[in-house]
Amino acid sequence: MRVDVLVTEGHKPVAGLAAQDFELRDNGVLQSVEVIDAADVPLNAVLALDTSASIRGKRRQDLIAAGESLVDDLKPVDRASLTTFSHAVVPRVPLTSDFAALRAELRRIEPEGQTAIMDGAYTALATTLTQTGRSLVILCTDGSDTSSWLDPREVIGAAKRSNAVFYGVTAADARRSPPLSELADATGGQILHVKSSAELAATLKGILNEFRSRYILAYNPTGVAAAGFHTLDVRVKRHGLTVKARSGYIGVGGAS
């Protein structure tokens, strides 16, 4: 079992911690952990972008530029995928290291229709379910969910089955979405708010840099049943530090 963990002091990531600095409990049982060097683990960057009618004009240009900027910051061993959503969800590019193809598809984005945020989030998370490596899902939207078919509980269940960390980027003036916050909390991610689309590129770059600064804790679950939902509690022994990690996972044979 691997758990991505973000440790911060104030708003700055903390480096230099070792396995003995962490305490991880699986269903209340203290586990023996090791820290894996994140540089040795390829990254799966999954973009889920709102392409509803409201992103016409400059918002479209800024969204495409932000996506391209994120791809530019990936390493050759990494992979990326692109899903867009309006009233319909379109899985445009599966996980690939062909970044030129992904950039070309980004430029084909044309705004239309309403907004199915939960459907888009589910499709993006499903992309990661059978993947090795570390998975980062970034969903960008400037509005509220107006046309999703899926119940948010199904989407949160997918998040618990996935090894992905979910980040949502929303417009500061958009109505807050409790399901998006639950997705972030379930996976150890965050929801970030931008005042304008011009901030998107810097925000996505910041997310990628933060993700690369996270620790990977690995352990073999001991003293707990394999199946069912496992609650995780990750802490550091040093005072004054903040820890963010996924709230739990579904073991083999479990149900959400």
Description of the structure:
The protein is of the alpha/beta class. The protein folds into two domains: 72 residues, no CATH class; 173 residues, von Willebrand factor, type A domain (Rossmann fold, 3-Layer(aba) Sandwich). Helix content is 27%, strand content 33%. It has six helices and 15 strands. Strand 6, helix 1 and strand 7 form a beta-alpha-beta unit. The longest helix is centred in the N-terminal third of the chain and has 15 residues. The model has no long low-confidence stretch (mean pLDDT 94).
Mean pLDDT across the residues is 94
Uncertain segments are: none
Number of strands: 15
By DSSP (H or I, 4+ residues per run), the number of helices equals 6
Helix content: 25-40%
Topology as a string of helices (H) and strands (E): EEEEEEHEEHHEHEHEHEEEE
- The CATH topology of the largest domain is given as Rossmann fold
From the spread of the alpha carbons, the general shape counts as globular
Q: Calculate the terminal CA-CA distance, rounded to whole Å.
A: 18 Å
SS content category: alpha/beta
Q: What is the topology, as strand order, of the major beta sheet?
A: 8-7-6-9-10-11
Radius of gyration: 18 Å
β-strand amount? 25-35%
Tally of discrete structural domains: 2
Provide the descriptors you would attach to this structure in a database record.
256 residues; alpha/beta; Rossmann fold; 33% strand; globular
Quick summary of this structure?
The protein has 256 residues and is of the alpha/beta class. It has helices spanning 58-72, 99-107, 117-128, 152-161, 178-187, 200-212, and strands at 2-9, 12-13, 22-26, 29-31, 34-36, 43-50, 79-85, 89-96, 134-141, 165-171, 190-194, 215-218, 228-236, 242-245, 248-251. It has six helices and 15 strands.
